[in-house]
Amino acid sequence: MDRYAKYQIYGEIKYQASLKKYTSLRVGGTVDALIYPHDLNSLLGLLKDLHEDSIPFKIWGMGSNILASDDHYQGLVVKLDLCLKSVVFQGNKIYVQAGVSLIALAYLAADNALSGFEFASGIPGSVGGALFMNAGAYKHDVYECLDKILVYRDDRVEWIEKNEIEVKYRYTSFMNHRDWIILEAVFNCNDADKDRVLHTMDERRQRRIASQPLDLPSAGSVFRNPETMSAWSCIDAVGLRGYRIGGAMFSEKHSNFIVNNEDAKAKDVMDLIYLAQNKVEEMFNIRLKPEIEFFNWSNHD
Fold first, then answer.
1. 170 catalytic, yes or no?
2. Which of 26, 204, 255, 291 is catalytic?
3. Catalytic residue at 18?
4. Distance CA 67, CA 74 (A)
5. Which of 23, 53, 167, 189 is the most exposed place for a label (fewest CB within 10 A)?
6. Is 52 a catalytic residue?
7. pLDDT of residue 245
8. What confidence score (pLDDT) does residue 300 get?
């Protein structure tokens, strides 16, 4: 793997890594190499070299919202969840790097008697990933408290104000600019009673435990909710709750989750996605839109 040896100065490299180990769904093929940059400066140096060398690469956070194909990826996966971990509180402002766990941020905010992230106390994944796709729950989302985002684009680092970003339900303009890399964000939160915030978070955590299949590998909600009805009710209506293909199945507990029930292949998951889309479209004339990200699929990348 001499092609990637020069990048060892920027971080720890794992060659021929199996992506099963790095996705919450526990599926996926192998990758030429996976790297954990040492810190922000190492990441910026790495990105500069990768662009100059025309090396294919993808930025990953915690791998919690990704369906990686079973095929080998000829390129580099850059993992941010161990290098961009800083969280700094300045009054009501929180400066958060992209690799920080969203759940960890929610509890840190609560511990500092700040409100605004209660909705996120059960959402797996990194802050960068949440900002990329506008993660949310309980009718709240990660952009409500956002001030600005630090990004790497066009070979430079710059701040983007909130009003420069197009934001919709489970969509942001970052999804149309996949070469823009989120490095850090600043959030403005509200003062709150710490115990009350923690109580709200605990209540929502208990709701998730009761309603979601947290005991099996998954990538969270598979589909975005259509305007007129929930995705899970569409899936139920076409009789797919508990339906299995290979080692993957629509969860009995929450049918908008596909769980890895028995050493599933990525193709098993994708086949379930297509099956649900086709059946729902046939019954309701609605094409369900995936909420998860697809990695290394020829018809999606």
1. yes
2. 291
3. no
4. 17
5. 53
6. no
7. 99
8. 61
